[in-house]
Amino acid sequence: MGHLKARNLVTAHERLRDQVAHALRAALISGELRPGEVYSAPTLAEDFGISATPVREAMLDLAREGLVEPVRNKGFRITEVNERDLDQYTEIRTLIEVPTVGRITKTASKADLEALRPIAEEIVRAAHDHDLIGYLEADRRFHLSLLALAGNDRLVDTVGELRKRSRLYGLTALDQRGELIPSAEEHLELLELMLSGDAEAAEQCMTRHLGHVRSLWAKGKADGADGADGEPTRRKR
Q1: pLDDT digits 0-9 by tens, 126-169
Q2: Chain centroid offset of residue 18 CA
Q3: pLDDT value of residue 161
Q4: Which of 73, 80, 115, 139 could be a cystine partner for 35, CB 3.0 to 4.6 Å?
Q5: Cα separation values, 126 from 59, 129, 182, 183, 207, Å
Q6: Do residues 206 and 214 make contact, with C-beta atoms less than 8 angstroms apart?
Q7: Cα(217)–Cα(194) distance, rounded to whole angstroms?
Q8: What sign has the CA pseudo-torsion 89, 94, 95, 96?
């Protein structure tokens, strides 16, 4: 019984670490955590109201994803993504996702594609409701679930990793201006084209969508210089 209790404690600890990592990713994407700034695990732990250990472990998880880098005796610096990085991420995603969408359009069943509609609608709803976390999570699920229909797990893992590294900066400001809505609605447009069996049009839509996302990256980085309301982000420590 003692062994089982210990096992449950480990599971609970890992779950807390994952929750913290998710919250930190959200804070980074929203612009609350600023690129180039150094944050200590104890300081962040105070914000969360927990001990520093799960925060430190979560930051190490983010370091493995390239989102932060350890700074000796200080904490973790939020890594900056330059324009060249973003262009390269977009190019790789385009090379992978565009032809894959064309192939899936020809091979996937209508039932499998229709199963993605609730997620596409969730993205649009979240954009209208200014639910930033819901928007990001639904967007991730839609793209990765769609690619999974190709039957290549490594392809899905690769795109998932690229999505983590090519995060949006200052997304809160874009959300407040309603600039996420057109990108959100493109998911439904893509789905309709795929259901119609028009592979060429679906590929064109995906190409346009990835270009749209790239433009949001650029705007987000520009907005990320300030907080969502034009003031410096408050959690700068």
Answers
A1: 999 988 878 888 999 999 999 999 999 999 999 998 887 776 55
A2: 15
A3: 86
A4: 80
A5: 27, 5, 12, 12, 23
A6: no
A7: 26
A8: positive
Residue 92 corresponds to which tokens in the numbers above? 């790789």
Token reading at 96: 């992978």
Half-sphere exposure of 213 (CA within 13 A, CB side): 25
Domains and CATH numbers, the chain: 2-78 (1.10.10.10), 83-223 (1.20.120.530)
Residue range 1-13: mean pLDDT, rounded: 49
How does DSSP classify residue 233?
P
What tokens were used for 163? 């999505």
Query: Hey, is 70 helix, strand or coil?
Result: strand
pLDDT confidence of residue 227: 42
Question: In this structure, are residues 191 and 117 in contact, taking their beta carbons and an 8 Å threshold?
Answer: yes
Number of CB atoms found within 10 A of residue 17's CB = 19
Query: How far is residue 186 from each of residues 75, 195, 212, measured CA to CA in Å?
Result: 39, 14, 10
Q: Are 144 and 160 in contact (CB under 8 A)?
A: yes
- In the three-class reduction of DSSP (H, G, I as helix; E, B as strand; rest coil), residue 76 is classed as strand
